[in-house]
Amino acid sequence: MFRFGKRSKNKKSNLFLSVPETRAIEYIVREMTENGRDLFDVMEDPFVRNRIVEERRYAIKQDEELLEAFEAEIHAVRLRLEAEDLKGAEK
Question: Is the pLDDT of residue 22 over 60?
Fold first, then answer.
């Protein structure tokens, strides 16, 4: 679902994510996409807080490249959901 491995070579990002952090990021994207929640609100959920330490959560909030990836992922999910809704309406 969420891919962080394809980082731009031109951008310097020191944010490397562990598996638990990646799962927390996927949760964040899902909450923002499906439930329309705010990033900073979701970042305080116990699920996220238990998988990403405070310093890392702060770094995520400040990482411009990651925030752009959030936006792109959320946009892609919304497009997919809209397409599924259209298919369902046609049946």
Answer: yes
Tokens of 73: 């992922």
- Whether pLDDT at 48 is above 50: yes
Count the neighbouring beta carbons within 10 Å of the beta carbon of residue 17: 17
pTM for the full predicted model: 0.62
Dihedral, CA atoms, 45, 71, 81, 17, nearest 10 degrees? -60
Mean pLDDT over 28-37 rounds to 85
Domain housing 81: 19-90
Does residue 12 lie in a domain region? Answer: no
Distance CA 50, CA 67 (A): 21
What mean pLDDT is reported for the chain? Answer: 78
Q: How many residues does the chain have?
A: 91
Positive/negative CA dihedral, 8, 2, 19, 46: positive
- Count up the domains in the chain and report the number: 1
